[in-house]
Amino acid sequence: MLRPDPLIAKAKEGDLEAFGKLLSSVEARLFRVGLILCGEREEAKDLLQETFLAIYQSLPRFSGRSSFYTYTYRILLNLYNKTKRKQRKILLPLSEDTRASTPSPAEAFLKEERREKVREAIARLPGRFQEVIILRYLEELTYQQIANQLQIKEGTVKSRLFKAKRLLAKILKT
């Protein structure tokens, strides 16, 4: 159990200034994850607003067994998955090609087609595998940071990443 945060206690009591400070402490990181998930700035902003509302509504139930960021990250991820469940499509902005020359229209089309296949493959992964892929390869966290964030052992992180990559390879082959 983490040390109780006086700011969280004040926010739980209804102190809106304390709540605002809490949100400010996680806003940039949550927006970045939202942007990675949604792929579009406006969608990410909408997801962030929904997340803030859900945090406000659920804050009295926050027990402090995890960091506040981990708690808010889970809320954001759950909201995203709930919203996108029907579409089963995750729009992850994969790194842009840094070549100086402009790709031909055919090359651009093939590149986008590959990205879309990877996005769809990631979307088909179970949630626990999606989150380790996102945290490792898009947020670029270390195994230890992922373990701390998800409150699991480092070996579990490595195992999930291994299984996620195998599943991705299998999905992409079909």
Please give a handful of descriptors for the protein shown.
single chain, 174 residues, Rna Polymerase Sigma Factor, Chain: A, Arc Repressor Mutant, subunit A
Distance N to C terminus = 44 Å
- CATH topology (level 3) name of the largest domain: Rna Polymerase Sigma Factor, Chain: A
Strand content: under 5%
H/E series, N to C?
HHHHHHHH
Oligomer: single chain
Q: Number of domains in the coordinates?
A: 2
Shape: globular
Helicity, as a percent range: over 70%
Mean pLDDT: 82
Summarize the SSE layout with pairings:
Elements: H1 6-12, H2 16-38, H3 41-58, H4 68-84, H5 105-124, H6 127-138, H7 143-150, H8 154-173
Helix pairs in contact: 1-2, 2-3, 2-4, 3-4, 6-8, 7-8
Brief write-up:
The protein is mostly helical and 174 residues long. It is built from eight helices and no strands.
Model description:
The structure is a single chain. With 174 residues, the chain is an all-alpha fold. The protein folds into two domains: 1-87, RNA polymerase sigma factor, region 2, helix turn helix motif (Rna Polymerase Sigma Factor, Chain: A, Orthogonal Bundle); 99-174, Orthogonal Bundle (Arc Repressor Mutant, subunit A). It is 72% helix and 0% strand. The protein has helices at 6-12, 16-38, 41-58, 68-84, 105-124, 127-138, 143-150, 154-173. Helix 3 packs across helix 4 and helix 6 packs across helix 8 (154-173). The longest helix has 23 residues, at 16-38.
